[in-house]
Amino acid sequence: MATKKPRYPTSIPFHYMGFDWEIKFIDIEATDFGETDSDQKEVRIYYKNRTEQNVIETLIHELFHVVMFELADSVFHFEKERVYDKEENLIRLTSPRAFAILRDNPDLVDFIIKRVRSL
Q: Where are the beta strands (DSSP E) in the chain?
C-alpha cells in the first residue's frame, strides 16, 4: 500500500532581516492555527483538519508576526515617563536592519573593512 504524501512540506527555511527562520508544518489539531516563536526564529502551522484557505491565511498571519517581531515591543511597550526608552526603542528598530545589511552583503562588508583598514 502506498504511503500517503503529506499535504505540506515538513519545513521551509527562509530569511528575514538577516536572520534564519523556519516554517514548520505540523499535522496535528491545535486550538491555535499557528504560532510564531521569535526567539527560536520559527513559525509553526498546525494543519490537521484545516482547509487550504485556512492554512495559507494562517501562514500569512504568522509571517506578519515575523515582520513585527522587533517592531511591536518598541511600539506597544513604550513607557513615556522614561526618556531613555526613546533611544532604546530606536535602536531596537534599527539594529536588526543594520545586521541584515551586514549579513546579507558580505562583499560590501569586505569592501568597507578594506577601506577602513587603509585609513
A: 11-16, 19-26, 34-37, 42-46
Residue 51 in 3-state DSSP?
coil
Distance, in Å, from the CA atom of 44 to the CA atom of 35, rounded to the nearest integer, reads: 5
pLDDT in tens, 6-45: 689 999 999 888 889 999 999 999 999 999 999 999 999 9
* Residues 25, 30, 36, 39, Cα dihedral to 10°: -100
Cell of 88: 532604546
Torsion of CA 78, 84, 86, 91, to 10 degrees: -110
Residue in this structure with the C-alpha cell 513585527, named with its chain if needed = 68
